[in-house]
Amino acid sequence: MKEPLPKFSYLSPMLSKKTKYGLKALAHLASQKDNRPVQIAEIAKHENISQKFLESILLSLRKTGFLGSKKGKGGGYYLIKDPKEILMTDVMRILEGPIAMVPCVSLNFYEKCDDCPDENTCSVNKLMLKVRDANLAVYRNNTLADLII
Amino acid sequence: MKEPLPKFSYLSPMLSKKTKYGLKALAHLASQKDNRPVQIAEIAKHENISQKFLESILLSLRKTGFLGSKKGKGGGYYLIKDPKEILMTDVMRILEGPIAMVPCVSLNFYEKCDDCPDENTCSVNKLMLKVRDANLAVYRNNTLADLII
DNA sequence: TGTTTACTCTATTAAATTGATAGGATAATT
DNA sequence: AATTATCCTATCAATTTAATAGAGTAAACA
Fold this sequence. Notes:
2 copies of one chain form a homodimer.
Chain A: H1 17-30, H2 40-47, H3 51-63, E1 67-70, E2 76-79, H4 88-95, H5 123-140
Antiparallel strand pairs in A: 1-2
Helix pairs in contact in A: 1-3, 2-3, 4-5
The structure holds a DNA duplex (30 and 30 nucleotides).
């Protein structure tokens, strides 16, 4: 007895909204002619993002050295580095977390899997190592500049 | 003011336990000399998996045509196809769901992102398309046979 | 024929995470 | 001093995950 493919509703997509919003905001800032500060409200409106949620995302991008901010009138957020110098590996690690799908194959956040006795004979480890390498290759070969048309 | 890299505890790894357990169980079955039925309890014990949880995973793999089952004494689960014929794309789609990280770049589960006005100018779409292709390449080029030592 | 074995199915649960919101504090500009 | 806009803390509902319980069903075997 076979069943049809299960219907995934994508109610919980694998890419978090945080990352999605963060990427869109960065791309928005990178699209500015000069590097003028852009207000949260403007980004939120233009990119269809909850303003309060976006606030916390931009804040974390500022604290990790991607963005600068200016308070008061005419204030807002702006890119600190050239978009061509902003690697997706760094952005993704800040916004989404580890790139590896299991801790035991993570470069920056390695942890032993608590349930796995031996990584060398683990089939999951073997597959996820290849997946990690494939993803890393993409993120390393793409900068913020590559995301804007 | 900069912050150190956030510490991801990997409390919620991106690969679900369901997929992890499912892969391990499939690999366990593929490692059997003959294709004899293996009891749930044996797999669970050998692979450090909650037996009841594993039950439901194996059931879904049976209903989707990967496994056969035999009841009663000497019963258990067994592979229906040759491990070399079992593509990781198919396994991952059953266990984990869509391979794409956003619905708007999914081959098998396409959906328009509700918050995005135009996919053609979406920076997230652009990046996630590349990620999907990279992941697909890995999953297409690996079979269950490739997971066992 | 009856007992044992082992898969099948439904339902429930605690814990964690996500995404969103509210409200006020702070700092810079005018 | 007043306005603007970032900064920070706390809270919230909804969802998902992982695990467990318990009863039902079918096959093998003595």
